[in-house]
Amino acid sequence: MDDMNARIERMLEQVQKAPRYTGGEMNAVHKDWDSVRLHYGFCFPDTYEIGMSHLGLKILYGLVNEEADSLCERFFMPWTDMMALMEEEDIPLFSIESRRPMRDFDMIGFTLQYEMSYTNILMMLKLGRVHLLSAERERDEPIVVAGGPCAFNPEPLADFIDAFMIGDGEEVTLEVTRTIADWKASGEPRIECLRHLARIGGVYVPALYDVTYHEDGTVAAVTPNDPAAPERVLRCIVTDLDSAYYPLTMPVPYTEVVFDRIMLEIMRGCTRGCRFCQAGMLYRPVRERSLPRLLEIAQKLEDATGYEEMSLSSLSSGDYSCLPDLIRALLKQFKGRHVSVSLPSLRLDSVLKESLEETQQERKTSLTFAPEAGTQRLRDVINKGVTEGDLMEKVRDAFSGGWSGVKLYFMIGLPTETDADLDGIVDLAQKVSRAYFEVPKGQRAKGLRITVSASSFVPKPVTPFQWEPQDTQEELKRKQRYLRDRLKNVKGVVFNYHTPELSFLEACVSRADRRFGKVLMRAHELGCMLDGWSDIFSFEKWLQAFADCGLDPLWYACRRRGEDEVMPWEHIDSGITRSFLRREYEKSLREETTRDCRKGCNACGLNRLKGVCAIADALRV
Amino acid sequence: MRMLCVFEKSERVRHIGHLDIMRTVGRALRRTGLPLSYSKGFSPHVLLTFASALSVGAVGRRELMDVTLDEDVTPEAFLAALNAALPPEMQASEARPLPEKHPALMAMVQGAEYELRLMDAEAADAFRAALPGFLAQAEIITPRKTKSGVKDCDIRPLIHRLSMEGDALVATLALTERESCKPDMLLTALSAFAGIDVPRALVIRRRLLGLSEDGTLVPLETL
Ligand code: SF4
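A: This is the predicted complex of the input protein with iron/sulfur cluster.
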């Protein structure tokens, strides 16, 4: 151990950003290793800066560490320079807190936030000297679990993960840690642990299911091969956020991370039903934290962290039922404490002018709008309930209120999109630009900057567009050029876009079946990792991995699924029914919108379950 | 009121850069609930200055900061509150009120005492043998890295004291806004003189020094 420490010290002197690995932050938890019976290694499959920006990490870290008989330590994906040194010095991946190797932990948990982090999972397991394949792990190796939004299609990772936790993690995590601790003490073989886990609601153990395929490669069925495994795994839903666990302290990184501030999750879920949005489906129904509980959390976190900035976090903060009251109360509570409150995902049709003006008191941030599509027709297709009138009104308010920076987010490659919809993007940018110049010179802030971002649409599981093909890369590139050439002429516009290769792979992975595990393994062997970093990402290696495994990436990304095709993830019950998704899909093709749930239940499937969705329950009486 | 405070930057956090240490102390102060003074202006920040930036990788045993408060607080209360708010790796050991007219700490720093812990016993032996000859030189020309490139400079007048304590080199070096000798410059010069490769060393800044009335270097916090 001491020798390992000396070698780690030597490595730290040579790496680029040592603070990624040294820990010792304010509020980091250091528990005595021998005082607990369960050691949980929480793994974020990306760098420290990204992982430490993630609210979910802080929730689980606090949750497990507050249990008297458990501890939780952090692991992140090391950067390439560190990996090279680890190999040189023969050091396995070690935890931030106690610098223990991954193998020493009873349980390793990965959070699945985006598909393109999967190669990092394999790399971290390899660096941690844990067998990559679930089937090969020995009894004394950690149980490897995973959760997060991407767990709703667990199949691409089925070969590597022992158990998935589906849905909200606050309650199921502790059931899983207790089960693993009990099993550890029992002396039973590893398979018994998997069986115990499979009996917990919301836990999916892929080894206990068999997948069969049709001749054309599509899935025929996914069926349990063990009595412990349920036919379908219903996701965990925390119904009351006020009583759900929320950390009242969190580690504060020394170095600046992506989101370096207090994050206040004001609600979970969204009632709008945008058809492209996976989060909007997966986090249903909408659940709010009460105002008093939020003020209490905010105060405790400010006391515990000393952060000077706070952001409200949710899919659609503008929809929080008493947002102006909340903002007013927060500003009052922190008056003289120099805490600025920012609203990150501003929904343009619900933010009140009044609250905008109040937030300006502290600091002016640039305003973000996400019309997603350039024409009303296409916005109807995707059910983005935003009109040009709304947007322009908010933009005018912002410009006359002293803002000069506006960010506009769009997607290209949406179902039914034509060049007329692209022209709509240009047109909208033009109108925004004009609105700025309409404000008299002395009254407007200097330096107009309209950032137009166009991301490539990726059809996701558990959305109405799960049947849709992605545009080919050639087509996406043509659309990017088309926009670039036209936006050039709009005053004040900066156009942002990325090569569509990463989106293409994301489209492959997100709807992949279990066979994709081989491609992932092959990509890992070929050296794929840190795919989210353009300087490291290698599209060629990924294509080779597909070719080596005899699978066609186009078949996964750019193929329209048949109406009756079994989706590889359909044994996972997200609560949202296939018939609702299909209905929404068909409506989208007819350019018909669906109302916001708050105006009436749309029978997404959660209405089948009592006590889950308050809106649906109210109708039941 | 102004409060002078002595704190440690320990081994575990030695790779944290100066700006990050400042931000961390700023946040720790905010957590204390002490009556902090803030700067005026668009984005107000805690009134807090450090005597000297400590380079990345170095440990500081007695680093100094100067905190401005809106109301009077006893040093004991200040210390207790601050230590409860700082991570265990950065604890404060002393605090003392400063007169309002006390010069800025930064302007008072004249030197620093360093311990350069050598990781390799052979290098320590070579240094021990080379030390008398090294110090007997009239000038010691060493490359110094500056913003405009590498320049040669004579560090002999900047070395106030130099000796071995076990396998550590202990040095009192000039550290002023005008000229200073960084520990790595000393290591480079001494290694070249002893004819060995520059050895790995853990740099520990033991204390910061200022000039007393009789012209001797004394711990800055006593002035
Ligand atoms: S059950 Fe009805 S109201 Fe509730 S989320 Fe689903 S569609 Fe909306």
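Confidence is low (pLDDT under 50) at residues 345-352 of chain A. The interface with chain B takes residues 10, 12-13, 18-19, 22-28, 252, 254-256, 303-308, 337-338, 363 of chain A (CB under 8 Å).
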